[in-house]
Write a structure and sequence with these properties.
single chain, 729 residues, four-stranded antiparallel sheet, two-stranded antiparallel sheet, membrane
């Protein structure tokens, strides 16, 4: 006979006889016995209680839901519901069984009566199949056995992997397009007219980049930086940003089709979560009254205000990072080390990015607690409502944590810092940062590159190594112990359950957030690959490479290094779909703003069509952007410096020259904005409105063009209705 199967294992410390914990534990186990549960106790360093539910519970479930899960098998066999359904029902009953003291299992775990409760991994059948064909590094390029994942981990996990696999497939297209744009930038950039002009501008003297110890400098010094900038900032980027807006829409539309096909095969397309929940409540307790829907405007207002306060705090942290960069820049430029002085700007940006990554790690923990607290305030009716509310809040906080610093660099850096002789200062002392003379987009590129690389490499390494190391540590010392037992207590070793329960207990604990964390990581990554992709065309490629490993990493983690997750039934990825759609719209706005405001694309076009040699004399032999750099510089008289600025020593060749330059469109006499500035400003706004409307129209057309539900799914339901009605007649 097959060795006996246990649905769940409860673990508890060994308490003294008659202690409060022991009495509470006994009461809880008595309640389970009353419901017909079989309980088996094994003693080791802890107490282990295996519980098995009676057949009647599953028969009630099948009867109530006339469930597709009921397989026409031998009625005496208690395996006639799938294992995942079985674990789910038992978990629900365990979590909702109330002792005479009105305590449930979660309360008892808080009071240290029980340590934990978990379902067991079954190392046979489906598990072996998954271990062989899924949780292996060698399977990186193979498709995933979604059906097996569903049979072992339940629908929710299977849908996560189906979504992740689909997302990774479509990322390959975006990664290829991004790579083409990037390579085109590399091949075209060094020959670009603008970078050529910067490299030849050996007589253009620029204003110092800081107040003390900063020299005047030549524009030609920034030759390399200019080349890098024009590698990212070119016409190809505009097309790529447009392409990514369409890609995001098509990806979601195709996912809706894929999901419809998958859940129709599982017979869950019209599944009703509320009905399922009410059925489980009634199986657990026939006297149960459903909790009613409630809504309080007062509570919603309080929650909304607290969310706004939290967002303000996160934006404040982004300001702190800005101040750090300003102060760091000031300190580095006064340093004794020549390398620090020369590379002050780049070092400040890079250390700022690392610091930003550290704030992300810390604030993630804070955000989770705040989001949980706000959810409890709202008192959601069911677990899935709770999960949806939590998801939206936590994602919003995470979004601001990740992106507020990038938003500053993209849209405010170098636009609010005044001009020579009248700089905007922090605390009246430190000058705000300026963009690099060749444009701000490179700062954004560096920041995104560092955050994406750090986030993906470090979090994946930590995510995998932590459970892997603890797994290895726990695995070692068990063998000698077993031998010493054999000498003393022969009958203990006979119990086949003991090793299985112990080894499961030593795996990494999983909780309700385990799958949520995986989803969140991917959705934040999706934001990076779409929102500022105009400044970082390599984002889809980095994401694609990361995801190839991410799928196997999650598989190994779930199958071998963690306890078995409690399977959850689901027929879609829940509120994440709306979150992804919102990101798609933000991506259009974000990329439109990056091209209109951050990049030099618009000023160049305005120059080409209004001020360039081509516009003046219709000559086709000259490059139309000739003279752009000179045109974008303004003139400054040295005597107009603020009194406390130490005017640096002149370069010997230019002693007579009293005029220096800076990047802006201002008049030479009173430093007011020139007509060109307003021309460019109007062009930026016009482009932004045009780009967003065109991109949103294309998104809508793409959404209409690709139907959400495939015809085959619609026809399946049509035939089913038809045959049911015919049978009735």
């Amino acid at each position: 006979q097959d060795k006996e199967k246990w649905d769940f294992v409860l673990v508890s410390n060994i308490h003294e006889v008659g202690s409060r914990e022991e009495i509470k534990r006994k009461k809880f186990l008595d309640e389970l016995s009353k419901k017909g549960f079989t309980i088996k106790k094994i003693e080791d360093k802890q107490l282990y209680y295996g519980v098995r539910a009676p057949k009647e519970i599953f028969q009630k479930y099948q009867w109530l839901l006339r469930n597709p899960d009921s397989r026409p098998q031998n009625p005496d066999n208690h395996q006639d519901v799938p294992v995942t359904t079985r674990i789910r029902i038992v978990n629900f009953i365990l979590q909702n069984t109330t002792t005479p003291d009105l305590e449930k299992l979660p309360d008892l775990i808080k009071k240290k009566v029980f340590k934990t409760a978990f379902p067991l991994h079954e190392k046979e059948g489906v598990w072996e199949n998954l271990d062989k064909n899924w949780a292996r590094w060698g399977d990186i390029f193979h498709s995933q056995p979604i059906e097996d994942i569903r049979c072992y981990f339940g629908e929710k996990v299977a849908l996560y992997f189906a979504w992740l696999g689909w997302y990774t497939c479509l990322l390959a297209i975006a990664a290829l397009a991004g790579l083409v744009v990037f390579v085109a930038g590399i091949t075209v950039f060094s020959s670009g007219q603008v970078s050529k002009e910067i490299c030849e501008a050996s007589t253009t003297i620029m204003c110092p980049l800081c107040d003390q110890k900063c020299p005047f400098w030549l524009l030609s010094d920034t030759c390399t930086y200019a080349k890098i900038t024009h590698m990212i900032d070119n016409e190809g980027t505009v097309l790529f940003a447009m392409f990514m807006a369409i890609w995001a829409t098509v990806f979601l539309e195709l996912w809706k089709r894929k999901r419809a096909t998958v859940v129709t095969n599982w017979d869950l397309y019209r599944w009703d979560e509320e009905e399922e929940e009410l059925a489980l409540e009634l199986i657990n307790n026939l006297q149960h009254e459903p909790q009613k829907y409630q809504h309080s405007y007062l509570r919603s207002t309080i929650v909304l205000l607290m969310v706004l306060v939290m967002i303000a705090v996160l934006i404040g942290i982004a300001h702190a990072l800005v101040i750090y960069r300003v102060v760091a820049m000031a300190l580095f430029t006064q340093s004794k080390v020549e390398f620090l002085r020369e590379q002050a700007n780049t070092i400040a940006v890079m250390t700022g990015a690392v610091l930003h990554y550290i704030t992300i790690v810390i604030m993630t923990k804070v955000n989770k607690q705040v989001a949980l607290f706000l959810c409890d305030l709202e008192k959601p009716r069911t677990f899935s409502h709770h999960e949806n509310n939590f998801t939206v809040k936590f994602f919003t906080f995470q979004f601001f944590t990740h992106f507020s610093s990038l938003i500053y660099i993209a849209f405010f850096l170098g636009r609010i810092n005044g001009h020579p002789g009248n700089y905007v200062r922090i605390a009246g002392k430190w000058r705000l940062e300026e963009c690099h003379p060749s444009g701000c987009i490179t700062d954004l590129f560096i920041q995104m590159g560092i955050i994406m690389l750090l986030k993906q490499t470090i979090s994946n390494v930590v995510e995998y190594l932590t459970p892997w190391i603890s797994h290895k540590v726990h695995k070692k010392p068990r063998c000698p112990k077993k031998r010493s037992m054999m000498v003393g207590e022969e009958e203990e070793v006979e119990d086949p359950c003991k090793n299985q329960w112990l080894s499961n207990f030593q795996l990494r604990e999983v909780n309700v957030f385990s799958l949520f964390d995986e989803f969140l990581e991917m959705v934040i990554q999706y934001s990076f690959t779409t929102i500022f992709v105009a400044a970082f065309p390599l984002a889809p490629l980095l994401a694609f490479l990361n995801n190839l490993f991410e799928i196997r990493l999650d598989a190994i983690k779930m199958l071998q290094l963690s306890r078995r997750m409690v399977p959850r039934k689901a027929n879609d990825i829940g509120i994440w779909l709306q979150v992804l759609e919102a990101i798609g719209t933000l991506a259009v706005i974000g990329n439109g703003l990056v091209i209109a405001i951050t990049s030099d694309f618009i000023p160049m076009q305005v120059y080409k069509y209004m001020y360039s040699p081509c516009a003046m004399e219709n000559s086709t032999s000259v490059d139309c952007s000739t003279g752009y750099i000179n045109h974008s510089l303004s003139v400054f008289r040295i005597q107009d410096f603020e009194p406390h600025t130490k005017v640096p020593k002149m370069l010997p060749d230019f002693v007579t020259d009293k005029i220096k330059e800076y990047r802006d469109y201002r008049n030479a006499d009173d430093y007011s904005y020139t007509a060109q500035f307003w021309h460019i400003f109007a062009a930026r706004l016009a482009f932004l409105i045009l780009f967003e409307h065109v991109a949103l129209c294309i998104k809508l057309i793409a959404a209409w063009y690709v139907p959400d539900v495939p015809q085959s799914v619609k026809n399946t339901f049509l035939n089913r209705k038809h045959s049911n009605l015919r049978r009735e007649l």
